[in-house]
Amino acid sequence: MKKIVLVLLMLTTTITFAQxxxxxxxxxxxxxxxxxxxxxxxxxxxxxxxxSAVWNVDTHELKLIxxxxxxxxxxxxxxxxxxxxxxxxLKASDDAYASVHACCKYRDxxxxxxxxxx
Amino acid sequence: MxxxxxxxxxxxxxxxxxxxxxxxxxDASIDNTNQPLFGANLIWSGTKVGASTxxxxxxxxxxxxxxxxxxxxxxxxxxxxxxxxxxxxxxxxLRPTNDLDEVVVNSRKIATSRxxxxxxxxxxxxxDELLKAACCNLSESFETNPSIDVNFSDAVSGxxxxxxxxxxSPYILIATENIPAIRGASQAYxxxxxxxxxxxxxxxxxGAGSVVNGFESIAGQINAELVKxxxxxxxxxxxxxxxxxRLELNTHIxxxxxxxxxTGLYVHGNTHQEKHDDNNDGFLDMPLYKQINVMNxxxxxxxxxxxVTFFNLRYLDDAKQSGQINFNPNTDKLTTNAWGSExxxxxxxxxxxxxxxxxxxxxxxxxxxxxxxxxxxxxxFGLNQYNIEHTSIYSNVIYNSIIDDSRHKIKxxxxxxxxxxxxxxxxxxFGRTERSFGGFFEYAFDDLEYFTLxxxxxxxxxxxxxxxxxPRLHMRYSPxxxxxxxxxxxxxxxxxxxxxxxxxxxxxxxxxxILNNNGNIYGLDPEIAWNYxxxxxxxxxxxxRKADITLDFYRTDFKNQVxxxxxxxxxxxxxxxxxxxxxxxxxAELNYNVFSHFDLRTAYKFYDVKTEYKSGKLxxxxxxKHRFFANASYETEIRNxxxxxxxxTYNWLSQQRFASTLNNPNQxxxxxxxxxxxxxxxxxTKVFSPKFEVYLGGENLTNVKQDNPIVSADxxxxxxxxxNFVYGPVFGSxxxxxxxxxxx
Lengths: 118, 744
Hints:
The complex is a heterodimer of chains A (about 120) and B (about 750). Chain A has helices at about 1-20, 35-45, 75-80, 95-100, 110-115, and strands spanning about 25-30, 50-55, 60-65. Chain A has about 120 residues and is α+β, with helices and mostly antiparallel strands. Chain A has a single domain (about 20-115), classed as Alpha-Beta Plaits, CATH 3.30.70. A three-stranded antiparallel sheet of chain A has the order 1-3-2, covered by helices on one side. Chain B is mainly beta and about 750 residues long. Chain B has three domains: about 20-100, Sandwich (Immunoglobulin-like), CATH 2.60.40; about 110-225, Ferric Hydroxamate Uptake Protein, Chain A, domain 1, CATH 2.170.130.10; about 225-330 and about 355-744, Beta Barrel (Maltoporin, Chain A). Helices cover about 5% and strands about 55% of the residues of chain B. Chain B contains four helices and 42 strands. In chain B, the strands form six sheets. Chain B has a 22-stranded antiparallel β-barrel. Chain B has a five-stranded mixed sheet with strand order 9-15-16-13-14. The radius of gyration of chain B is 31 Å and the shape is elongated. The chains are: A alpha+beta (about 120), B mainly beta (about 750). The interface of A and B includes residues 24, 63 and 89 of A.
C-alpha cells in the first residue's frame, strides 16, 4: 500500500511539474478555406484554457497555445471534430461533417481542386 | 444463406490478410541518428484505414490497392505523404517542425486582404502604388489615392497641402512609423520634407483612429512606414528631372554589419533654379528651392530573443525663394523695391524604437518609442516676418497582451509629449511650452468570423489643454462574404498653431487679429471635435473579374474650432467658434480589374463643409462640393525580366468658393465661385530588369491654368494683394523623366 501511495505521489508531482501555463502544440487539421480556418479556430476557443489557435490553410497545421491546468490536447481535438473537421488522429462524425458549409467539404476532391484554382 | 453471410463478413479480414504494408518510421530530430519514432500515425489518404507505430517505430497496415497516398504524421513533426505502389516494406524519416520556436518580429508586410477584417477603415498603400506617380515627396504620393485630396500648390511656397474628409492636414495625425511627425512648426511644409523613395508603405485610416498615438487626430490618421536597412536594396539610385527645371536625386545605401546589426544611409537632394512666369503677372509660377535631406538608420534584430530596435538620425536643410521675378533677396529683402519671400528651414531629428516580442508567448510584446526634434524656420513674406523654432520630445511605451485568449487583445501604455515653441509673427513674440502626460487602454475583439471591435480610451493631463478623456470606437460587421460594414466614433482635441498652419496667409496684405484673449493658446481655446463614420465595403465578381465597391460617410462636428476668417479681404481674423462648424463627406469608390493586368479605380466624392463665421454660415473657402477621380493602370506581361507599366490619373473638381473680396476695389474683386478644374496626369515606366527602370511622365497634360492666381499682382504692396486664391494649376503642362537603379 505504501508503495502505491509513493508511486502515486511521485506521479502526481511529476504531473504538476509538467503543467505548463503556455503549452505549445501542433496538430494537423483537415480543411480547405478561410471559412474552415474561422470554424476551426473558433472551435478551439470553445475549450476553456486555449489562449491562441492559428490554423494554416496551406499546411493544415494548427498551432495551439493553451493552459495545461485547464485543458489538454484531447479535449481541444474533440471540440474540433465536433464542428466537423478531422484531425490527424480523430475523425469527425458524419453528422458533424454534414454541418460544414458546401464549399468547405474538404474530404471531396472536387472541392479541394476548386480551392486550388483560387 | 447463413454461410454466405458469415463468409462475406470475413471478407475484409481475408483481404487484409492478403497484403500488409510494413515499415519503420524514424525520428530525425535526435542527432540525426534515426531513432525509431513511437506513436507516429499512418493513414491512407481519403480512407479510414490507418495504424500507428510501436515502440520500435514499426508499423503494419493493410495495403489498399488503388489508394496509394500514405500520410505519416506526428505532433511536432512535418507530415509527409508517400506514394506507395506496392506492398514492399518502407523506411521513413520524419523531420521536426522547428517553426514553433521561431519568432517573426518583423512582420509588418502589406496585406490588402486584411482590410476586410479590420475594425478600422484602413487602406494600405503599397510601394507599387507609390511608384504610379514618380512622387518626389510624401504629399505628392497621394495623387493616385481618392481618399486624400491633394491641393494645387500655392503660389508662394509651391507646397501641396492635403485634405481628408474635407479637413486640412492639421486635423490629420501624420506619423512616420507611428511617431507623430508632421505637427507643430512642420505642419505647413512637413510633407514635402519626407522624400517619396524613403516611404515603404502608407496606411490611411479614415475617422477617429487609434488612441495609442495621442489625442490630436480628428479626421484620420496617416502612417508612413519608412524603408528599413534589412529589407531595402543594398544600393538604390533615383534620378528625376522635370521640364520646369526641377531636379531630384535619391540614393540609399544599406549594409549588413553583422547577423544582428544593419545600417542604411538615405540621401535626398532637390533643386529648382529656373525662373518661370508663364502667366506674365510678374511673379514666379513656382518657387526656387533647394533641399538636402539625410537620414541614417540603424537596425538591430535578434529573433531568438524577440528584439528589434531602430535608431534614426535625420538632418534637413531647405531653402525656398519666391515672389516677383526681379526680386533680389540681397537688396530687396523686407523692402518695397519688389515683393519677395524666403523660407529657410533647418530640422534635425533623433529617434529610437525598441520592440520586444516574448519568444515563448507570441501575444506578449512591448514597444518603446522616443523621438526628439528641433525645427527652425526663418522666413519673410513681403513685409511680413515669420520665425518659428519648435523643440519636441515624444515618448511612448506600449504593452500588448491578451485577455483569456487571442480573440481579446489589449494594448495599454503611456505617452509623454513636450513641445516648446518660440515664435515671431505679426511683429510680436509668441512663446509657449506644452507638456502632456497620458495613459491609454485599447481593447480589440475578434470573433474570427463576423465581428471585430476596437475600443480605446485615453486620459491625458496637459498644461494648456487641461485634463480630459479621449474615447474612440471602431466596429466591423461582415454578414456575408467579402463584405464589411464599419462604424466609428471618436473625439479629438488639439491646440491650433494658428500662424504655422496658416503661414500661406502671410503672403497677402491682410491684417492679422486674434479676437479672443481668455484662452491658453494665443488667447484661443483648444479645438475639440467628434468624428462619426459609417462605411460599407463589398467585394464581388463582375464578368468573372474581381471588383469592389466602397461607400462611406463621415461627419466631423466641431465643439470648438479656431475659425480662420478671410471674409474681409483686408483681414484675417482668428476666433473661437460660436455656432456650428462641420464637415460632411461622402465617398463612393469602385475598383475593378477589367482584364488581366488592367486595373481601374474610380471615385466620386461629395463635401459639405460649413462654418459659422462672423458674417454668417458659409462654405469653407476653396473646398469643392463634388470631386470625380479615375485612375487606370496597365502592366504588360514580364518577358525576359522586362515589362512596361502605364498609368493615367484624371481628376475633376467642381467650383470652389472664394472668400469674399467685396471690400476690394472693383478690379480686384473675384466671383463668388471659381471655375471647375480637370487635370490629367500620365506616366509610363519601362522596366528593363529587376535592377533598372526608366520612367517618363506628364502632369497636367491638358495644360489647364488658372488665369490670375494672385490678386493685385500688379500692386503687391497695395491693400488687396493676396496669393491665397489658388484653385487650380498655376503652372501648365510639365513633363518629367527619371530612372531607378537598384542592387539587391
